[in-house]
Design goal:
Helix content is 58%, strand content 5%. It has 159 residues and is mainly α. The protein folds into two domains: 71 residues, Arc Repressor Mutant, subunit A (Orthogonal Bundle), CATH 1.10.10.10; 66 residues, no CATH class. It has a two-stranded antiparallel ribbon with strand order 1-2. Strand 1 and strand 2 form a beta hairpin. Helix 1 crosses helix 3 and helix 4 packs antiparallel against helix 7. The longest helix has 20 residues.
Length: 159
């Protein structure tokens, strides 16, 4: 039986193949797990497209969608041509800030909530790099909640 598609007025996005999207998400998780298991060696090539397709047992279309997901997270990028492949990158603090801000907005949490939880768990001190992250998250949350900017724009201003 053929699946009937509904056209929504004003819709600009093509229909999503949810099965492929789920498989691509899982493949992206496996790619990230492999990177973590290797010790996150920035600049190293994880493998070529054909090698990784064979390693994960997925189609080319699913692999390319998985690569888009890890590229969006700034975990790795695809380098084309001879000697190319999936190159491991180091996510910047702005990438982390954006993800944290979006999560905190989704769960309607504040930094005070985070600090209260950390205090209850016995975490007392932060290094300078953690303080930079916390300051960026705080600034981005305040800007997003006041409506003065998008969370991701405020995070970019940190870099």
């Amino acid at each position: 039986m053929a699946e009937e598609r509904i056209a929504y007025p004003g819709s600009v996005a093509p229909p999503v193949d949810s099965r492929r999207a789920k498989v691509a998400g899982l493949a992206a998780e496996y790619i990230i797990a492999d990177i973590i298991e290797r010790g996150w060696p920035v600049g190293e090539i994880l493998g070529s497209e054909p090698e990784l397709i064979a390693r994960y047992g997925i189609s080319r279309a699913v692999f390319r969608e998985a690569v888009r997901l890890v590229e969006h997270q700034k975990v790795a990028r695809m380098r084309r041509g001879p000697g190319g492949g999936l190159v491991i990158e180091e996510p910047g603090v702005d990438t982390v800030i954006s993800a944290v801000v979006l999560y905190l907005l989704r769960v309607d949490a504040t930094l005070d909530d985070v600090f209260d939880t950390l205090e209850r768990e016995g975490v007392e001190k932060f290094s300078a790099s953690w303080q930079e992250l916390i300051d960026g998250v705080d600034k981005s949350l305040k800007a997003a909640r006041s409506g003065s900017t998008k969370p991701t724009d405020a995070a970019k201003d940190q870099g």
